[in-house]
Amino acid sequence: MSERMRRWRLILGGEDADGTGEDLSGADLKRDKTLDALYGEEKRRGGLGGSSPRVARWLGDIRGYFPASVVQVMQRDAMDRLGLRQLLLEPELLESVQPDVHLVGTLLSLNQAIPARSRETARAVVRHVVDELERRLAQPTRQAITGALHRAGRTSKPRAADIDWNRTILANLKHYQAEQGTVIPERLVGYGRRLPQVSREIVLCLDQSGSMASSVVYAGVFGAVLASVRSLRTQIIAFDTAVVDLTEHLTDPVELLFGVQLGGGTDINSALAYCQTRVTTPRDTIFVLISDLYEGGDNDEMLRRAQAMVASDMQVVCLLALSDDGAPSYDHDNAAALAALGVPTFACTPDQFPDLIAAAIQRDDITTWAGNNDIQLAAPEGS
Q1: What angle do CA 321, 350, 361 make, to 5 degrees?
Q2: Of 23, 174, 213, 252, which sits 20 to 30 A from 160 (CA to CA)?
Q3: Helix/strand/coil percentages in the chain, nearest 5
Q4: How confident is the model at residue 383 (pLDDT cuts 50, 70, 90)?
Q5: Do 368 and 229 fall within a single domain?
Q6: Residue 17 pLDDT greater than 50, yes or no
Q7: Are residues 186 and 200 in the same domain?
Q8: Is residue 377, in this structure, part of any structural domain at all?
């Protein structure tokens, strides 16, 4: 069988209707069976049923026959097509899965249902994913934030001991005097003697609705990283119809994530009301609402609170998603209304988030920043 025919046979899935007339053997046959168990037609699919050992074998098979990225997609499809969610409460199954952000979201949504015998295994899975995310995201986040804090703290009238000579020379190269062989600086660039103990406050306000699961996972990791920067005061607030302050858990993102209860209703207005009481210096505060904006509370009051926050000179940003999945379904009317109030509203990937916070620290225009990074913002009403 040619390679081209082999690929078509795997795609079409066999049976008389595939049109190839070819049979598979060896690893290809096993690969085909794992696909058929998940994607085969209902009338001929054996499926995985409710058997934990059979599911565990299937999970092991797909990890052996497909790359990690494909395994993660197949696991997510199995959640929906084969009812794998409840079976994930078995510790032997949890040990078989390929850990990823979506799996963590599923486990968090099942948090209250996880039996005691599976809880430690579930925590180990979540810890694995959190550690991987921290390794990927912590260093670029700290670098971006620390650089932004220093740039925000620069002064054009530094004391002699605080002059940044490298930047001062670069800023004054046009004033080089050839006859003297030196630069005559007309503008000094420097840093303050030290940054204030806390120079910016960051409030991450997280919608716990089910569609925001991946965003909540990333936000929890970023919250822990931001909390480790001494010049920032970071708070993290989660909400559904109730508001939960998770700030005390920022030192342990796994504990923080298990404090989230995914899947409830949504009362953004109550969350904003609580957050307003937690802000001490609006002008130095960056408020990030992470929500799909489907408001179940007082919608008009929610928009009035957002308007008041903007009027207080607080930097307010709304992220429709903080994940690699793109924007989920969201309330377009509320997104447009927030944009009209001057709240930049858009979906953000985890790799873009550190630069977003850095831009906010430097008080850059977030709308301009988003445009420079090819990010599609929600349009104001009437535009």
Answers
A1: 95
A2: 174
A3: 55, 10, 35
A4: low
A5: yes
A6: no
A7: no
A8: no
